[in-house]
């Protein structure tokens, strides 16, 4: 087989694995939001991920298979699969033998975090692709000096940054590769690099333009209820103005500064190291984790700029992730760390094999490879359960239950996790009739409830299993993993 085809093969195998375990339709939490926003060309929660939204919208309208939500999921599966192919290509760039490179590539592809994230609408999947592509082209530039690699480095970095701000943590890794003495760009090269970064950032223009168009067309039905412009799904934070635009792209609604502040917390670095080891063991097992440590040191010693870039790219997300106060699922922020660690595992494998004088295709080398495979398999013995996602229709069942218990003109106030599938049903499937979905806590807009109740019934979906709101009669309608209530004024608004 031609060497150039092997990355395509590894990526294709990963894609087949991910597609075989894709959930069939929409879901809860951020997944449901991203599936909705990409389908309707809305504005996602900060930092809004315009590249993700535009790419998802493209696949929604191009793919002939599945519903819109499945197509957005497929977009993420494809993004991680391409990153898998680039992983193999990068390993070959740093002289890791083909068989070892393929073994470590599949180890990454089938690790629980990449596999799970590749099968759902997840911004970090597209951000991963942009970052690893930037690393790959920067590495190729450092070896070849071809200007087109410089262009692709800047373009991919810009696209990654226009997906998620975590891309800025890649800069300390890219700079040594781009500016190394033997391949340092001239003034024209720096201008080309800067221009390509700006080109990659252009999708951010989508945010103010689309926000203004949504407002002009009155597409968000929550505005007619007296809610402020900038509610989720259609026009989150209304980024058509410069202050709101900055608020969105910088993630000012969230405690992002806590992540960056983590770098200055020197006393926390032992905790960061422990968290890194935990993630590596969970992905690759104890043998894989040990080989990653050996390989990282070896890459820096032997590959200098390339090795340092890969190690820095792997390490910088750790303090940020472990210090960011509002992360509910920190594992997805480790995708690039796991990707780079797979390269280090390959380098560590070769070092140990050489140390033991194991010649290629010898029984000893195959035994060492078998030990590594066993480590990969033991790391996540239950990952095969991801195939069960193919039958997961919990969100559609939940939507059907809400439809059955609410009249067609209801206002449904739902907490974020439960609002996102309702939004998909309302704006993508158009299945909610005249119901209006308000994503909010039960008390966030309590000042508007009496006004709403004059003309429409109000229902609440919450995590709270004993909800009370002063001045209102809150009647529970059912319990389970969510709790639904009918709201009435204390003076009495009968159930419809």
Task: Considering the chains and any ligands shown, give keywords for the structure.
mainly alpha, 5-stranded mixed sheet, 5% strand, 2 domains, 5 strands, 496 residues, D-Maltodextrin-Binding Protein, domain 2
Protein architecture, described:
This protein is mainly α and 496 residues long. It folds into two domains: 3-204 and 257-388, no CATH class; 394-489, D-Maltodextrin-Binding Protein, domain 2, CATH 3.40.190. Helices cover 58% and strands 5% of the residues. It has helices spanning 6-19, 29-40, 50-62, 68-93, 98-109, 112-118, 123-144, 147-161, 171-178, 187-201, 206-217, 242-249, 256-261, 269-303, 305-315, 317-323, 335-355, 363-379, 394-405, 416-427, 449-453, and strands at 411-414, 436-439, 458-462, 472-478, 483-489. A five-stranded mixed beta sheet has the order 2-1-3-5-4. 51% of the residues are buried. The model has no long low-confidence stretch (mean pLDDT 90).
Put the structure in a nutshell:
The chain contains 21 helices and five strands. With 496 residues, the chain is mostly helical.
Order of helices and strands: HHHHHHHHHHHHHHHHHHHEHEHEEE
Q: What about the largest sheet?
A: 5 strands, mixed
Which structural class should the secondary elements be placed in?
A: mainly alpha
Count every beta strand, where a strand is a DSSP E run of 2 or more residues: 5
How many domain units? Answer: 2
- Spans of 5+ residues with little confidence (pLDDT < 50)? none
Radius of gyration: 25 Å
Portion in helices: 55-70%
**Which strand order do you get reading across the main beta sheet?**
2-1-3-5-4
Tell me the distance between the termini. 68 Å
Mean pLDDT: 90
Classify the beta-strand content into a percent band.
Answer: 5-15%
Shape: globular
Helices, by number, come to 21
